[in-house]
């Protein structure tokens, strides 16, 4: 897919050799399924050279759902396995530009979502979570990197990558530069001591890849290292594996704010079943785990391979 | 011109009544020649209500020429006459985006140009000169106003106003929002105590009007007062009244860094003359002051009406 590479057994072996521990189950199970330049990041780690992690969240509502959690859970493992700094961008400016909400509302979503992200247990000493609406106005270096990227990308290029039209507002059109800027260590002088040469690894859902293909294209032209990438697939909605969880449809998603009972009820009521059409049929043929949403969720959350194998 | 009004004798009388002093000679001589909503600003002043001044400079080189000085000289008079705060935006980010220079070079032009601007004698207690490259990264409120404007203007609108093409970089396309933001008092919470309702008067050269027509269009949609405007005409280049001084052509301009002797030599050598073709012709018919660059310069700089009249 546009120059990314699948995560194959050779790379999984390199992970194991480099870290001295098995790769995360999301990697082993193909949920984190492709990458760009991950070999180079593993090589850096072997040589004791620094790099940092960057991921983000578009805070589109107060409630995060389980699908949003996957890249963060995986990022947490990466931070622990590699013992590196992590920056987490909350693109509240993006949500203001794209949605019919005020800046104040977008900013409040950042606070609510940040609580859920913090609750996942990132290393407080090595993690920087920031609101664009706050941080861009607090960091001349971040703004300068935005300018550098904005100078290096034309409307035509942004249109080609993101499908912008002439009716889109000018904020949307220049936004990709804001998502690009955290890939460069010089955007965080307080973390990286004003160094601009520290490489970045971005774990993200695959739909974010266009932003970072653009970033990788621009990086050498502005004298910065290209960020490496690890792509994860989508977490399926309750309605089935071909659907994506949507925060705007409460019945498609399990939210972090749902009570344990609400989660159980939702799964029982809405989760697409791979079971047989009748009890007899089910007893005879068994269920189809490939399309059974409950089983698929276990693939994302159950770290015990043997138990998962047994359920299959 | 697109809804602006000429500065006529009625408005000049209002100036005089409001201020208890004659309007500045640039107003009287039609060099500051049109306006938007200046009546409302005069009314505010009469009522003792606050407003502020905003002007700016695109620091495209180290050297400012006399043409650049005119709006600042006039702004200085406005500040003294009305006794109001003034913000001066140095758009070094714009110059970085438009020109083949680095951010560091653009930022250094701000410092050099700011020295020339300061030397004109603005009230140090009531004047805030800022570099975009520094201030945007130091003011969340400024960035938020940028976002508000960027959400309210489409590519199509920006194209219609500024003639952008699809080959322009995305930074240029969103830049007009950066020039709009200082029109709103909430962009300077440290000056206006976080008030968002203080009206703005922008003295500027006429070529900047498109930015502020856009700003006036957007202002009510983001809950801010429309800025008022005072437009000045161009200062002619040495080559003649139909030409505009250009910093990139040293022989077209008198620079603030030129020595008195260099100024004299430039005027003598290059200033387009309205004199007769021969001494005889000149003695018979006199000169044509309308096209004589030396005389035109006196219209911009000689505040003594009687002396100017005598020269004519």
UniProtKB/TrEMBL annotation, chains A, B:
Its EC number is 6.1.1.2. Transmembrane segments: none annotated. One of its GO terms (biological process) is tryptophanyl-tRNA aminoacylation. GO terms for molecular function: ATP binding; tryptophan-tRNA ligase activity. Keywords: Aminoacyl-tRNA synthetase, ATP-binding, Ligase, Nucleotide-binding, Protein biosynthesis. It holds the Pfam family tRNA-synt_1b. It is an enzyme of class 6 (ligase). CDD domains: TrpRS_core. InterPro entries: aa-tRNA-synth_I_CS, aa-tRNA-synth_Ic, Rossmann-like_a/b/a_fold, Trp-tRNA-ligase. GO terms for cellular component: cytoplasm. Belongs to the class-I aminoacyl-tRNA synthetase family. PANTHER family: TRYPTOPHAN--TRNA LIGASE, CYTOPLASMIC, TRYPTOPHANYL-TRNA SYNTHETASE. This is tryptophan--tRNA ligase. It comes from Macrostomum lignano. The lineage of its organism: Eukaryota, Metazoa, Spiralia, Lophotrochozoa, Platyhelminthes.
